[in-house]
Structure of Response regulator transcription factor:
Amino acid sequence: MRILVVEDDVNLSRQLSEALKDAGYVVDQAFDGEEGHYLGDTEPYDAIILDIGLPEMDGITVLEKWRADGKGMPVLLLTARDRWSDKVAGIDAGADDYVAKPFHVEEVLARIRALIRRAAGHASADIICGPVRLDTKGSKASVNGEALKLTSHEYRLLSYLMHHMGEVVSRTELVEHMYDQDFDRDSNTIEVFVGRLRKKIGVDMIETVRGLGYRMQAPANGK
Ligand code: CA
């Protein structure tokens, strides 16, 4: 899962980015409204954290422009504690949630997890697909109750496939959601990660859909 953080306070941006990376997300950062708007317009993010008070273009305007262009990704606004009018304006502009500053990073992480889950149609913190359970809170997974030892790339891959279970996900889509914008992307590596993940899961659940990509679903026999 790939997150964009649009925040001009360099320390706060770093704090958020590090916490998100620790939780298994890939993170891009923008430090003003124009750069943030551009990235959100051109890159596919699973969620965006957007500060309201930004140089070049304020957060509400950035959000309004995205929504006017039909961009539907989940957006969490960062607002000033005492500015209730900002919260109202933000939600009216199409924000999915907000957190008032100062905040605890854990709260932002919990809200981001919930936004990403709900965008994918999952209400619970644990996503279950046959014998595989993804614990989005602990950033870990298990098969038949046994913990899977996954690298960060494998976790990201599994997490994306499970959030989109039953759907065909292309290699390009996986690359875009598993790496940040500066990463030297090679979609061939995806095949390698899928192979390793299949081996670790041990149950045949990730189907290769020729020419299209991959689809993860519970085995038909219910095991
Ligand atoms: Ca700011």
Notes: The pocket of calcium ion is lined by residues 8-9, 51, 53-54 (CB under 6 Å). The first strand starts at residue 2 and ends at 6. The longest helix spans residues 105-119.
